[in-house]
Amino acid sequence: MCTTPSAGVLVRDAPPWGWPEGCVLSRSAFFLLVLCLIVGTPGGEAATAAAPSGAVVAADRPGAGDLALSSERRRWTAPQGPFFNDPRRKKGYFRIERKVIQTIRHTRPGSTIRIAVYSFDRMPVAEALVAAHKRGVKVQMLLNDHQYTKAMRVVRKRIGAKRSADSFIYRCTAGCRATDNKFNNMHSKFYLFSRAGASRDVVAVGSANLMLNAAIHQWNDLYFTSGDHALHRQLAGLFDDMAVDHETRRPARFFCGTPTGPACDEAVDKHTVWAYPRPSGPRNDLVLDTLAKVQCLTPTASGGQTRTRLALSMHTMRGRRGDYLAAAIRDKFAEGCKVRVSYGLIGFHTKKVIGKPTSRGRIPLRSTGLDYNPDDNYDLNKDGKDDLILNFYSHQKYLTIQGTFDGVPNSHLVVTGSSNWASLSPGNDEVRMTVKGAKLTRKYVRNFDYQWKKKRNSRNAYTTTYVNFRVARMVRGDDGQLRRTYVTERRPVVTIERDPYRRGPYWEAD
C-alpha cells in the first residue's frame, strides 16, 4: 500500500497514471504532484516561464556532448594488428602510446584493465588510468622494482597498492614468478582490456614499455588482437599469478586460447604464448625449437627452389645463450635461407659467432645502435659507474618467417614479445608470442625494411677496410712467351670489430 503524508481530507479516487492500484493521496499532495508534473515537463510553459536561460531544470540531464561521447565510446573498436613507433620522426614517437591511451579511454565501467610492463614514466598514460578508475574501471598494474617514477606515484595515490582490491599498482621484487635474486626482473610487456568500446577481450603483446625513452630513442612494436576470450582469460590468469609476487620460480606456462588440434602448436594456431621463467639451454631452448622447423630450400614444380626468408630484429644478443642462438640462425643462412639480422646491442663474442663466414659468405648484419654523443654517458642507475646512453637503438624482439615451416610451404609467422636472445631472459618474467598470418607478417617485414634500408636508421655491422695486395699475373710478351708479373690491387677486407660503445647494465633492463 502506497501512502503520503496526510494534509487534509484523503481522496480515494483512481491514482494518477502510472501509480499502482491502492495508492492513497491527500488532496494537497495530489495538487502538489500535478504541479510537479507540469513544471518538470521539458516543453511545459510553466517550466519555460519559471526557468530563465541556463536554469537548473536540465542540470541533472546529460548534455548532448556527454551523450555523444558515451555513444562514441560504445561504438569504438580496439586497434587490430601490429603498431610501430618511429624514434627518428616526431610524428612517429607516440604511435604505440596513442593506441594504448585510446584503448584505456574507451574501457567501460565495470571492465578491467591489466597492464604488466617493466617500466613506466608516462604521465599521459597515468592520467588515462586514473580517469578510467574514476568512471568505475578496475585498473591493475604490475611493474619491475627498479624505479619509482612520478607516473607510478600518481597512479598509486589515486588507486592504491593493495593487491586484494579491485584496483592496484604494484612493483614485483626481482620478478613476479621468478626466483628472488639480484639478476631476475619482471620484464614482460602485455596489456589486457576486458571491454573497450564495442571490443571484448583485447590483448596487446610486444616490446613496448610505457616510457618516454621507449618512444623517442627506441624502436618498438605492440601487437593488438581482440575477441579471443580463451586467450584473454589465460593471460589474465597469468597476470593474477604474477600479482602474488612469488619468491621461488613458478613453472612456465604455454597456451594458445582454444587449440586448433589436440594441443597448442605454433605452426597451426593463430596465437601461442609461452610465459617465462623457463630454464633454457642448447638442448631445450624455444628459439632453437622454432628454428629447427624452418626448411630453407623448397623444390618447386618447375624444378627450381624457393628460399625461406627470415628477418630478426633483436634488442640485445649476448652471453652463452646469445652465442648458441647466433650460431643457430647463422646455420640457417648457411643452409640456404635468406636471412637478415638487425640488432640494437650485441656482445663482442656473440658478434664474432654470428658474423663467422659460411660457405655462402657472411650473414647480412646491421645495427640500429647509434651513439652520436659517446661522451654523454652518465651514472643513470646511480651505481657509481657511467651507463651506456645511446641516441637510437632497437628494443624489438621479433623474428619473421616466410616460407616452409614445419613442413608447410608458404607459411607466415611472427615471433614477438619481451624476451631477448641473451642469458638473463630465461630466468625473468617474459612473454613470448607467436602469431600466424601473411598480412600481419608483411607488416612486420615492412617495419624491418624501413630500419634496414634507410641509412639513417641503421649501419653496417661489419667493418670494411681497403688493403693493397700484390697480385701475380701471367702476361704474354711481344715474343709470345708468358711471363709472371706483379700488380697492385686494392681490395676490401671485411672484419668483425667491437661496436663503438662498451657494455652497460641497461642492455636488457629496459
TrEMBL record:
Its EC number is 3.1.4.4. Residues 101-241 form the Phospholipase D-like domain. InterPro entries: PLD-like_dom, PLD_domain. GO terms for molecular function: phospholipase D activity; RNA endonuclease activity producing 5'-phosphomonoesters, hydrolytic mechanism. SUPFAM superfamilies: Phospholipase D/nuclease. One of its GO terms (biological process) is lipid catabolic process. Pfam families: PLDc_2. Keywords: Hydrolase, Lipid degradation, Lipid metabolism. It catalyses: a 1,2-diacyl-sn-glycero-3-phosphocholine + H2O = a 1,2-diacyl-sn-glycero-3-phosphate + choline + H(+). Belongs to the phospholipase D family. This is phospholipase D.
